[in-house]
Structures are given as C-alpha cells and as structure tokens.
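In the design runs reported in the main text, the only information available to the sequence generator was the tokenized backbone. The following block is the verbatim input for one such run; it is reproduced so that readers can re-run the procedure and compare outputs position by position.
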C-alpha cells in the first residue's frame, strides 16, 4: 500500500477589498503577507499556492509570477506553485520563460499549475474567445513543455504556434505542470496532459483517478494537489461567527464570475457551511479528517488551505496557520507514520 507523504501548505488570492479589516493599502498588504509566508515556513508549512484573475475591484492576484519570485527570495525550502494560472490568457512561450526563470531562482521549488478559466470579461480583454479555452489550454501546455526541453522544433496548432527557435535558459529542474479542473471533460483532459491534478474541495478525486484508468494508466500513478475550503480553529463555530462574512464575500464573488456554474448566491455565512462550501473543524476533527483523506487517497501529495479570507486581517489568518502547523500537521504525520509502521510489521 502506498503511504501518503503529503505536504501541507497555504493558498493565497491576495484579495484586498475596500473596507478591509485594517484599512491597509496594497503595498502594506503585500509586505505583511510576504512576512507571513516567511514566518509560516519557519514553523513548518511546506508549500504556498497562488491563483490568478484580472480586472477585479479587490485586486485579486493579477501577477502571480512576480509574487512567486518575491516569495522565493524570502524562503529557502517552501515549494511554490500556482493554483492556478489561467493559461489561455497567456502567450505560452512567455509562460514557459517565466516558469523556467522561477524554477532557476528557487532551486527547482516552483510548480506551474494551469487551468482553462471561465470568466468572460478576462477573455475578451486578452483577445481570446471563451469557446476556445480547451484548445488554448492543451496547445499551450504542449508549447510550454517544448520550451522547457530546449527544443527548437516548431509548433503550429489550431490556435497557437511556436517558431523554430529554442527558448533559453531552460530549467535545471523541470517544473511539475499541473492542471486544475472541475467539469468531467476538463478532468479527463487534466489526467491526459498534466503531471498532476489541482483539485478544489476534494470533490473530484475519484473522477480524476477514474480518468487515469480510462487512459490506460494505473490509479497509483495519480498525483493530486488538494485545495481545501476549511476553517480550522480551537472553537470553529466562534471563529466562523467572526470571519464568516469574509467567506460569504469570497464564495459569492466566485459565483458572480461563473466559477461554479449557474448557481444562486448565498445570503448568510451559515448557508455556506450547510451547503458544504466551507467546512469547520476543531484540531482533533482536522487530524481525524485529514488522516482519513490521506489514507484513503494516498495519491494526494499536497493539502493546502486559504491563509486568510478576503478582507480579513493578515494576523487573523496567522493564528489559524499556527494552529495548523503546531497542532494538526504533526499529529496527522505521526498517525500516518504509525499506521505505516504497523503495516510494515505485518507485511
């Protein structure tokens, strides 16, 4: 039996809506968050994940590569990834160059996570057609891989092209190229073209592993990087009463953009919990749930949580990060290690 050795990380969208908790500007917000990430590494957090959107009033991360570079400069061991970059909006050669540079700067600690996107105004602004998302994603991935290899071979696709020129410098450590998806056809594509699967809310792990089997690959080869929508606190209901409006804002913004399809917005934070959009755990429950998750799906290589919610104070998120690092992660690892030892004894 494959035993999970998952890493644990933080997820950032760098949203800073008007009327935020501490009246901060973006410069102060970025600096405080970079301080938080460096501190999180020092207490045992393994990874950090950045996401991307454009033209959002709250400043939702438009430049994840620049932030990744700053994070790489402030950290030494933390893995840095995108979950995710909307790759159809990008020139794939530029995407490959920026990713290669990040890999070189960080000693191979960078992973490129991509997805096809969904928000129509972004596609219109970047002169892309929403209907072309699948081919833009797939051809872009092919071009990125060719660029990373140093190949001078040209590519002429339905949407994109690469000239007969090599891209330099190439990465010394080829980044993982991960693909995120939620709809079945997109999950099938992720299984076919990605080095791993970026999931959200743990809802599609079985679909991804089933897709691998249909493609003739064993489920054991699956690699899942699992984004969590979970609040872990000593008193999670009390914490939710304090921060639930920030979660309500976050989810409703995604609904407004069409991330989850044509679904109605929520009106109260507790509706998010009732619907399963967010889960509330105390540390003991978190240990139980994460141990079960990683035991049942050992293909999960990373589990990451929102560091803080849009408009919430950075220090407020830091309290939950410290709880995760000091009470939850060590207990999960100890329990999994103990189970592995028992299995070895009985093998």
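Verbatim output:
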């Amino acid at each position: 039996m494959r035993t999970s050795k998952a890493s644990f990380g933080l997820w950032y969208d760098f949203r800073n809506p008007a009327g935020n908790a501490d009246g901060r500007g973006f410069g102060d917000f970025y600096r405080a968050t970079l301080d938080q990430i460096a501190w999180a590494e020092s207490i045992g957090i393994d990874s950090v994940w950045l996401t991307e959107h454009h033209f959002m009033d709250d400043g939702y991360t438009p430049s994840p590569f620049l932030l990744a570079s700053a994070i790489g400069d402030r950290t030494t061991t933390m893995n840095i990834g995108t979950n995710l970059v909307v790759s159809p909006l990008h020139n794939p050669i530029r995407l490959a160059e920026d990713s290669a540079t990040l890999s070189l700067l960080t000693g191979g600690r960078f992973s490129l996570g991509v997805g096809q996107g969904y928000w129509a105004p972004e596609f219109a602004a970047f002169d892309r057609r929403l209907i072309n998302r699948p081919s833009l994603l797939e051809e872009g991935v092919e071009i990125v891989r060719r660029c990373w290899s140093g190949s001078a071979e040209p590519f002429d696709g339905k949407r994109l092209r690469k000239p007969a020129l090599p891209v330099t410098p190439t990465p010394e450590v080829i980044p993982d190229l991960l693909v995120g998806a939620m709809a079945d056809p997109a999950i099938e594509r992720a299984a076919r073209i990605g080095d791993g699967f970026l999931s959200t809310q743990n809802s599609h792990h079985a679909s991804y592993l089933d897709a691998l089997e249909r493609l003739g690959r064993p489920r054991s080869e699956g690699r899942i990087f699992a984004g969590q929508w979970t609040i872990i606190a000593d008193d999670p209901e009390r914490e939710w009463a304090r921060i639930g409006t920030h979660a309500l804002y976050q989810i409703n913004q995604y609904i407004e953009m069409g991330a989850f399809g044509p679904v109605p917005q929520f009106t109260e934070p507790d509706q998010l919990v009732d619907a399963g959009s967010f889960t509330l755990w105390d540390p003991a429950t978190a240990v139980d749930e994460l141990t079960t998750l990683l035991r049942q799906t050992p293909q999960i290589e990373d589990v990451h949580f929102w560091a803080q919610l849009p408009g919430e104070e950075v220090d407020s998120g830091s309290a939950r990060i410290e709880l995760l690092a000091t009470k939850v992660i060590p207990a999960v690892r100890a329990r999994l290690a103990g189970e592995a030892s028992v299995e070895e004894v009985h093998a």
